[in-house]
Amino acid sequence: MTPALHRTRTSTAQMAIGASSGASPFRALRAAVRLQETEVAGGGGGGGDGGDTSERPEGPDDGEDDTNPLVKVWKGYEQLLEEKPLLMKALTSFTGFAIGDILAQKFIQKTSPFDWLRLFRLASFGFLVHGTSSHWFYGKLDGLIPGTTAAVVFTKVFIDQVLWNPIFGIMFFSYVALLEVKGLDYVIDKTKTELLTQVTGSWKVWPIAHAINFRFIPSSQRVLYINTIQIGYNCFLSLISNR
To answer: What is the reported pTM?
Structure first.
């Protein structure tokens, strides 16, 4: 403690004692409390530098995000999505269509033996067609119609379901039927037969899903959101494309 600080505190203590003799004891008590508060604020005789300014040690929650494996995976995905958006969206669609067909075969149709060629057709469509075309389409849509107002969201949902939906159906059924190697007539017939079922089935799921998509989901993560929702829808596509 420096001499000046010592004299100041001694003077304050004397004032508190003097107050107790010439005034009420309550005033003396308040003076003593103020003295104590002054000492605590000054660091309790720590050298007159305003107290301890050293950094506190990390608490139990500090740095938790750095050790959480899910957070690490998510950060890694976002980094790759920024560096290689087309590849990551293709892989995301590959995963979504693969899971959808596996669920359809294992738990809905209970296919035995498991049809690996069918899984290849669905998963490869996700990788080669759905992921890449979705990257292009939704990027263009967001660029031409920016914003998240009600009018913008309605316009995007309308374009998606009235224009893009049947185009997607044609790409899907023609691709899957083509890989079955049953001739061009089969491809055309399969697409004509199933297209209306796919389009009307989409209207039961995607208007609400896309309203959420265009209102709240960042453009870079639309394909991930779509494939998360589409796992169940992919079961439906897998069933009607193989019936």
So the answer is: 0.71
